[in-house]
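REVIEWER CHECKLIST
Item 1: Sequence provided? yes
Item 2: Single chain? yes
Item 3: Sequence as submitted:
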Amino acid sequence: MPNYSFQEVINIQDYAALIEKIKTNSENKGNKTDLLFRGQNSDSPLLPKLARLTLKGKITNIEKLMLEEFKRGILPLSEFQPENNWDLLALAQHHGLPTRLLDWTYSALVALWFTVSRPAKIDKNKQPLDGVVWILNADVKDFRTNTELIDPLSNKITKIFRSTVVSRRISAQSGVFTVHKINEGGKMIRFETHRTFSKKLTKVTIPAAQFAAIRKQLHIMGVNSASVFPDIDGYCRHLEWRYSKLSDELPGESK
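Item 4: Structure as written out by the authors:
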């Protein structure tokens, strides 16, 4: 049985109340650390992308090769130049390269937006899948602080990592990461089953039928594609949404 707790919310008001309750309880126990959030359009294991792929070789070798190729090719493409492998890994993650990092955010609303920004996925029985927001109530000791002494590719313990702001997206999304250990068998432990972190997690279910209504509420509160992705692509995505309707926003669909 998992050690994390379960909750369900159907609107932003309930979501905010739950977060306030978790934060207050944490502070009453002497933990002043900010909460972290991760939004997912459907419920899937908390594993970095690198651990979800079928790789053409040993995971640690592929990871190193991809990062070396990324470093070699980004000079004319990136407006930010990473100073070390930690920041290089963060930049690669935010541009879609499979890494040992998993995205989190300090913003509860940004996480909720990632959950509801698109219509719900459909399962094999043609039923819409609920989304989730994970809330991590971490301690100060859970953070990786001595990055100047440790290379991320030899990380021996799963920790939380705050990178330098090497991308506008990291800043706009209040981004932070968990950096995962790769064990001797070439596997990563699912974060929700990790013995240190499982008991610090709350899994919040967002019903698929509420995605469209919450999406509209978030836009009113200033959270949308344009704010989360502060570039031309994000702005165009936002304009498309403003002037058209997603499938769950059509008449007759659940709101």
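Item 5: Key structural point noted by reviewer: The two ends are 33 Å apart (CA to CA).
Item 6: Recommendation: ____
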